[in-house]
Amino acid sequence: MKFSLIAPLLISQAAAFTFVTQPHRFQTKLYEDKPGKINFEKDLDSPKVVTQEKLEAGDKKVYCRCWQSGTFPLCDGSHVKHNEETGDNVGPLIVSVAKGE
User: Fold this and answer.
1) Which helix (H) or strand (E) holds 63?
2) Are 82 and 68 in contact (CB under 8 A)?
3) H helix runs in the chain, sequence order
């Protein structure tokens, strides 16, 4: 299987597991008016937000899992403030592809 097919699969599975298993952990000041909702900015008229990227050998990407990144879907460290305010421990998803030999 090509590396370009593995990364999107890993990302989707990790994101699905994170949000489905513990949705209550994402309740912050931003979400008081709509409990359970986490996306208030990205592609709101789309039925779901999907991101697909092709990673080449040696590439590394750091993806947001808190939905508060200003560079979503990439992480900008916004989870640090979220964790301080809520006592949560959410962090980014890091995906890397080994360099070809």
Assistant:
1) strand 60-63
2) yes
3) 3-21, 79-86
* pTM of model > 0.70: no
User: What's the DSSP call for residue 39?
Assistant: -
Token couple for 54: 């092709």
- Residues recognised as catalytic: 48
* Residue 79, SS3 per DSSP: helix
Q: Please report, in tens digits, the pLDDT of each residue of the chain (101 residues total).
A: 455 656 665 566 655 555 444 444 444 555 566 667 777 788 889 998 888 899 999 999 999 998 889 999 999 999 999 899 989 999 999 999 999 86
| Residue indicated by tokens 């050998």 | 57
Q: What 3-state class would DSSP assign to 9?
A: helix
Distance of alpha carbon 7 from alpha carbon 49, whole angstroms: 17
What's the rounded Cα separation, in Å, for the pair 6 and 12? Answer: 10
Instruction: Indicate the burial class of 82 (C-beta count within 10 angstroms; 0-12, 13-18, 19 or more).
Output: buried
